[in-house]
Amino acid sequence: MEDLTPGYDFGSDRFDLAKTEDREIVRFVLSQALYGEATGVFCGKSLYAAGTLEAAKFYVRQAKQELSHLQLFAEIFRLLGLVPAPAHWAIRLLAAHNNYYPLKVLMEHAIGEGMVLDIFKDLLMQTLPDDDARIPLIKKKLHVVCREEVEHVSWGEKETRRILGERPWLKTPFYGLFELQMAVLPFVARAFQKRAATHPVLRHVGPFLEYVRARVRSQGQALGFVPRERPGFLFRAWAMFFGVALFLRSQFARSKSTLDKTYLHELGFGDPSVEEREAASSSSS
After folding, report:
1. CB within 8 A of 261, min separation 6: which ones?
2. Residue 197's pLDDT is what?
3. How much is the mean pLDDT over the chain?
4. Which residues of the chain, if any, have pLDDT below 50?
5. Angle 134-26-207 (CA atoms, 0-180°, nearest 5)?
């Protein structure tokens, strides 16, 4: 069973949806979530790069789930009487689709959706006020989203481990991209900086950001691409340069299908290469 226990404690601090300021803050947070779910639908493109039937099944299921999440967030906006705002540039950057499968698995599933889950289960599930009659239904919808996001993160972590086992050289650029992602996060928090000192929920922005950073660092260490001790400046600079170079190169990458070459083996009919040799031998004789 998935663990949806909050990792950061907001205590008793809640938004007051009767206040215009609080409604605008919730609108901003939900707008970023809505954009993330919209771009999540692009996971359907990964079907072409899926190397196994397991991966293909996952991406079909995820595409359906992301489309459902998109509708769920639209319903939440309507329940609250809010209109979505454009996504913050940092969210657009962090949610950018990648055609290079290893980067997609790491940046979108393992890290990206992990941070999305932090926002949903830690921030929204705790700080939306239960004394508002609309919130219990909204939280039920968020619980559905959280449960499925846990599945997406688990897949990203599993695939990242597999990919790093096959291509250990990716650890350095992966670490560099991790450092860059952590450097981008504060730009989102700055949208609330002026009000953070006086608002009961926003005063948690700094500590919550540090919690997310620490959790993602721990996640990266468990996956094997973040060192236990933070390296010196020169290595970090090299890793970030390598990561950016790989990211830029990935923007011109073309997915390659493999399932059409491995489907017989995937379906339990043996090693395709062996069967091809046997077929060739039979035809030549």
Report:
1. 272
2. 78
3. 88
4. 1, 275, 277-285
5. 120
Residue type at 161 in one-letter notation: R
What Å distances lie between residue 170 and 79, 103, 229, CA to CA? 44, 9, 19
Sign of CA pseudo-dihedral 83, 191, 197, 201: positive
Please calculate the CA angle 282-283-285 and round it to the nearest 5 degrees: 65
User: Residue 193: its pLDDT value, please?
Assistant: 74
DSSP codes, the chain:
------SS--TT----TTSHHHHHHHHHHHHHHHHHHHHHGGGGGGGTT--SHHHHHHHHHHHHHHHHHHHHHHHHHHHHT----PPPHHHHHHT---SSHHHIIIIIIIIIHHHHHIIIIIIIHHHS-TTSTTHHHHHHHHHHHHHHHHHHHHHHHHHHHHHHHH-GGGHHHHHHHHHHHHHHHHHHHGGGGGGTTT-TTGGGHHHHHHHHHHHHHHHHHHHTSS-SSPPPHHHHHHHHHHHHHHHHHHTT------HHHHHHHHTTS--HHHHHHHHHHHHH-
The two three-digit tokens of residue 152, written as one number: 């997406």
pLDDT of residue 169: 97
pTM: 0.86
